């Protein structure tokens, strides 16, 4: 949904397409009173019944109950799309199922119960540990269909595929440059933000780009 069609928080720049998510955001960031004041809705003679999930009003209680049953309870059908009604109390992210919410809530904890048996590195999810364990083996199941190069992780293969394409979908909002990879754009942004994360280990001079640091090493003769 375009930003101009989304609901805006009256107290900050947060935007969302769902009133229920906006309520969670406002209560967690600005306090419960802000929700009560912003969402206070006076009953009208024509539509006195208000859905407590999304805020939609109805003229009959029957219509409101049917709306809740179809939209917020029943699974998706070709003609009906269920709204995401399982909300994270920490960040306001919404999910279609309780299981999806429970999986998301793991990201808000410090628990890391899945431990690599080789290096003892711990992870929050078992799939993350299994991906990590590939570094301890020669297994590279994700192969490029063009050049045959293999990778341990699917996301690394996806990044590699940009080498075989002329597309540059990641555009800088500050200038006209565009890039094949998001990571390269992220590094490029240091030029505009003034950050200097790349430091010469010999003289401690800093640079916004790793390529500039490499040039510095070549010209100065400093050792990496």
Topology:
Elements (H helix, E strand, L loop, with lengths): L6 E2 L6 E2 L2 H12 L1 H7 L10 E2 L6 E2 L2 H11 L14 E2 L6 E2 L2 H8 L8 E2 L6 E2 L2 H7 L9 E2 L6 E2 L2 H7 L9 E2 L6 E2 L2 H7 L1 H4 L4 E2 L6 E2 L2 H11 L4
Antiparallel strand pairs: 1-2, 3-4, 5-6, 7-8, 9-10, 11-12, 13-14
Descriptive tags:
14 strands, Double Stranded RNA Binding Domain, two-stranded antiparallel sheet, extended, two-stranded antiparallel ribbon, alpha+beta, 224 residues, 4 domains, 12% strand
CATH superfamily of the largest domain: Classic Zinc Finger
Strand segment count: 14
Architecture of the largest domain in CATH?
A: 2-Layer Sandwich
Low-pLDDT parts are 74-83
Ends apart, CA distance between termini? 48 Å
CATH-defined fold name of the largest domain: Double Stranded RNA Binding Domain
Question: What is the averaged pLDDT score?
Answer: 78
Subcellular location: Nucleus
Pfam families: zf-C2H2, zf-C2H2_4
Domain C2H2-type: 49-77, 86-113, 114-141, 142-169, 170-197, 198-224
GO molecular function, one term: zinc ion binding
Please sum up the structure shown.
The protein is α+β, with helices and mostly antiparallel strands and 224 residues long.
Question: If you had to describe this structure to a student in words, what would you say it looks like?
Answer:
With 224 residues, the protein is of the alpha+beta class. The chain has helices at 19-30, 32-38, 61-71, 98-105, 126-132, 154-160, 182-188, 190-193, 210-220; strands at residues 7-8, 15-16, 49-50, 57-58, 86-87, 94-95, 114-115, 122-123, 142-143, 150-151, 170-171, 178-179, 198-199, 206-207. The strands form 7 sheets. A two-stranded antiparallel ribbon has the order 1-2. The protein is extended. Residues 74-83 have low confidence and may be disordered.
């Amino acid at each position: 949904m375009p930003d101009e069609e989304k609901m805006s928080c009256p107290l900050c720049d947060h935007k969302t397409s769902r009133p229920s998510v906006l309520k969670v955001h406002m209560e967690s960031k600005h306090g419960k009173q802000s929700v009560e004041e912003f969402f206070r809705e006076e009953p009208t003679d024509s539509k006195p019944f208000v859905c407590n999930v999304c805020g939609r009003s109805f003229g009959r209680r029957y219509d409101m109950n049917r709306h809740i049953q179809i939209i917020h309870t029943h699974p998706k059908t070709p003609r009906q799309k269920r709204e995401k009604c399982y909300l994270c109390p920490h960040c306001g992210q919404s999910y279609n199922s309780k299981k999806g919410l429970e999986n998301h809530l793991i990201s808000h904890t410090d628990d890391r119960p899945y431990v690599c048996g080789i290096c003892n590195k711990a992870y929050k999810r078992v799939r993350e540990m299994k991906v990590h364990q590939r570094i301890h083996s020669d297994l590279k199941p994700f192969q490029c269909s063009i050049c045959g190069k293999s990778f341990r992780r699917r996301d690394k293969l996806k990044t590699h595929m940009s080498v075989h394409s002329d597309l540059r979908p990641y555009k800088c909002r500050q200038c006209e440059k565009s890039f094949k990879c998001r990571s390269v754009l992220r590094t490029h942004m240091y030029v505009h933000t003034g950050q200097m994360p790349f430091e010469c280990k010999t003289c401690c001079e800093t640079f916004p780009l790793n390529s500039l640091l490499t040039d510095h090493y070549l010209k100065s003769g400093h050792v990496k």
